[in-house]
Amino acid sequence: MNRKLTAALAGVVAVAALAAGPALAQGTNNITGFGQAGRNQEKKPQYVPGAKAQEKMFPLGATWTAVSLNGKPFNGNDRPTFIIDSQYRARGYGGCNTFTATAFPLREQHLAVGPLAITKKSCDKGLAATEQAFLIALRTSGAWDLVGSQLVIRTQNGELRFDRTL
After folding, report:
1. Residue 16 in this model has a pLDDT that exceeds 80
2. pTM
3. Are strands 89-93 and 81-84 parallel, antiparallel or unpaired?
């Protein structure tokens, strides 16, 4: 009886080998079991967040002279100026009057300027209007950037450009 069982098992093994042989010879992948799913999947590219641009430090202690407001140049010797010192005090000249305020450079190159204290000299109307436009733009400042050698302050009312004064 043992001989009959051994012969039967040998026959089953031989039939199974013949059935699987051609499939393996053709290179088809009939693998079953654990790990099959990982073998046939394409690799997806891994998400890599973009690098933030290096945040610039606001140039405290530098004096800036206004060049233009919304593309309109400031003319003459009465060009507005300002400086922010290391104690975050802004002070400057508006073209006729002097002013002071608190000013804080914030994250992501934003600038917050507090209420302005202004002297009350009488000026001609044209100069007073230019000074008022400058002071409103400075007070409502939002973002700043150093572009080449110029300081650019973007405001709700436009863009102020400054050159560094020695």
Report:
1. no
2. 0.65
3. antiparallel
